[in-house]
Amino acid sequence: MKLFIDSADVNEIREAQEMGVLDGVTTNPSLVAKTGRSFDECAREIVEMVDGPVSLEVVATDCDGMVREAEQLVNYGPNVVVKIPLIRDGLKATKTLSERGIKVNNTLCFSPMQALLSAKAGSSYISPFVGRLDDISHDGMEVVAQIIEIYANYVFETEVLVASVRNPLHLVAAATMGADVATVPFNVIGRLLKHPLTEIGLKRFLDDWKNVPEG
Ligand code: G3P
Asked: Which of left, alpha, beta for 178 (phi over 0: left; psi -120 to 50: alpha)?
């Protein structure tokens, strides 16, 4: 499973990258706003520091506007994936852009049928938001399981990118189901590695080591 960071904060991205397990980045307008920096500044720096795919989101809501924005966004670099919301015009824009060879990540997906339409329109990634579904008492990971099954039935190449991840259990479920990618906030990436028994075990090894006589 590929691991992306869901962040527009270059310090977080750099730190995750230093762990050596980062495959890409997803951003959205809310994450950019949180940095307090301009979109242009964030996009330029992120695309330059990361080799893998970087999702940058359009803010237009009409097809022509989305296509125009997408054409600007891909100028940031060859690894840019354009994030397009799953609304009617978004679907049309996805079809147009994918036919032009521009990679699209369809965002704000909350149902298996939205995911089917996205794949038919030629998206490269589908982003089901599991945490936001859980928030309204729907099982987010169940939707991911349905999408994976549907895509396998019809051999769609669209990659399933699990988004709105809130905890390590979302990732256990995603990896068990064989999701292609999970995009994870910085605070959750930190929690993936942490285990109290690892820390207690390491402390015991180092304490015992002090009792080994010098040879
Ligand atoms: O990038 C999209 C998604 O991961 C947002 O997550 O936590 O705002 O629901 P969240």
From this structure: left
**Strand 2-6 and strand 54-57: pairing?**
unpaired
Of 2, 83, 194, 210, the active-site residue reads 83
Output the domain CATH number for residue 162.
Answer: 3.20.20.70
- Number of domains making up the chain: 1
Please report whether residue 73 resides in a domain. Answer: yes
Domain that holds residue 147: 2-209
Distant-in-sequence, close-in-space partners of 186: CB < 8 Å, separation ≥ 6: 5, 7, 9, 12, 15, 16
Average confidence score pLDDT of the chain: 97
- The predicted-structure confidence for 135-160, as pLDDT tens digits, reads as follows 999 999 999 999 999 999 999 999 99
Question: Which of 5, 6, 165 has most ligand 1 atoms within 8 Å of its beta carbon, as the pocket-test mutant?
Answer: 6
Judge whether 83 counts as a catalytic residue: yes
